[in-house]
Every structure is written in C-alpha cells, then in structure tokens.
Design a protein that fits this description.
alpha+beta; 26% helix; single chain; 311 residues; 19 strands; 25% strand; eight-stranded antiparallel beta sheet; three-stranded antiparallel beta sheet
Length: 311
Amino acid sequence: MIKKIKIFTILAITTICALPMKGQDLLARQAPVDRKMKAVDSVALQRLIFTENFESPAEDLYEDWSNKYAHHETALPDSFRISLKDFCMPTTSRVLTSNFGARWGRQHKGLDIKVYIGDTIRAAFSGKVRIVRYEARGYGKYVVIRHHNGLETIYGHMSKQLVTEDQEVRAGDPIGLGGNTGRSTGSHLHFETRLCGVALNPALMFDFRNQDVVDDYYMFHKDSYQRESAVANRLRGVNNSGLSSGDDDIEMANAAPVANYAQESRFHKVKKGETLYSIARKRGTSVDAIMKLNHLKKTSRLQPGQILKYN
C-alpha cells in the first residue's frame, strides 16, 4: 500500500512539473505565429492609413471639402513642413512669362509658364481633384487639386480638362491641355500653389527653368514666407514681372535667368510633320543629342507646338 502511494506521488509530481514545460513549448510555437500576425496587422494598418489619407487629403489643415469655390483663405499655421518629394513638373516648359506678386496694379497669385495649345499639363503631386470648372473672366478652364502634402495647386487657362471632380490622381497624371481660355492674352499655364487657401509663390518650391523642385521639402514660416517670395522671384523668376503672358516674341532662352542654367541654350518649337531627324538636321545637331537633352526615346512622338532644347 505504501509502495503504491509512493508511485502515485511520483507520477503526480512528474505530471505537475511537465505542465510548465508543455506550456513553454506552446508559447515557443505560438511566438512566430504572433510575429507573423503582428506583421500582417501592421501592413493592414498602413494600407488603412494610406486609404484614409487618399480619401481625405490634408485633413489636418482643411476643415471641409467643397467643390463650390476655387480657394477659401483660412488661418495659416505658424510653420508647416511641405514635402516636395514624389513630384512632377506640371509642364516641360522652362519659360516663365510672369512672376508671382504685384502686376498691373493688382496681385498676381501664381506663375505664368509659356505653353502652347494642346501641351500636356500634369498633376504636380498626388492628391484628389477638388474643382473642375470654367471661369470666363478669370481662370478659364481650370483644375484645383488638394494634395497629401497640404498644398492645393491650381492650373488655369487650359483648353481642355482631362479629370473630374473628386477623382484621385497621382503625380504626373495628365489633368488637362494647355490653352488660352478665360482672362488671358495668349496661350500659357497659370500655376498657383496655395496653403489653407493662401497663395504662396510657386517659385519658393518649383524651379521651372531647371525642371526641378528646390529641395526635398519647403519649410513654411508664417512670418517670413513673403520676404522669401521676393528672393525666389530674383532667383527663379523673370526680369520683367509685367511681361505679357501672351507675348510670343519672348526670347525663350533668356526668359528666366538662373545661374545654374546655361544661358546659351536654344530651343525649337515643333511644327506639324517634323521629326527628330529633320529638326536635328535643321539645327545642326544630332538626333542623339536632342534625345538626351529632352529625355526622349526614338519611339517618342512629337507634338506640334512642343518645345525642344537642341543645345
């Protein structure tokens, strides 16, 4: 009897001791599963955040989403970091014809860039189209996009709009064609950048002459952005802020002086029926040189009115 009790006691103790070990084995087997589930949860969360941001761009800065007005000024933050990464220049034109600021006794709220009717206009950043409208005495056919970086961009005087209101767009997507609609004296793109509805000089962020942004981000400061705007005009603007945007006799190579850009550069306006070969022959250069200067391929199709750099 005593022997049976001892055997029972030993078995009970062994069983009790084995339980934690089995528990530890179970936890060890569960750990990789937990890590995988956590990774899955993180991916799902990132997708959810991305989707929410895409559906409600810059919601921290803007209280509403309205298709009724082009711009509505609200309180500016004291400072705000605007990311300029993942951008696309709205046009390949390097020619500025009018600065941001005082012009003809009133404030010009954007930059005028020389484009021709039918030139492709592209979204500067990813975002959501807020306005697609026609304004006879102002912007003409124009588009307003609210971007995830907090900016809103306005593209005016187009001949055709290629997007619809509430449409999501990526940086570089075609949104319209260059034109001369609305209050305009010649074909050009009127380009605005706004923060909380307040117009900021696009030259603070965009260098059209060099077809690039000025940095990875622009740090907006409420108390200094207007002074910075004047400096940006001197660095990346035109000599004569009152120059008509419809003046077709502009010397394109000298329209917007920038120290880093070659002043002897020359441009060719493509005519109907012209090819890279015929242009190269006419301008005394090679097809390869034109392709390299304009980032073209041999399969690239030229459009009448397109501007090509040839030296």
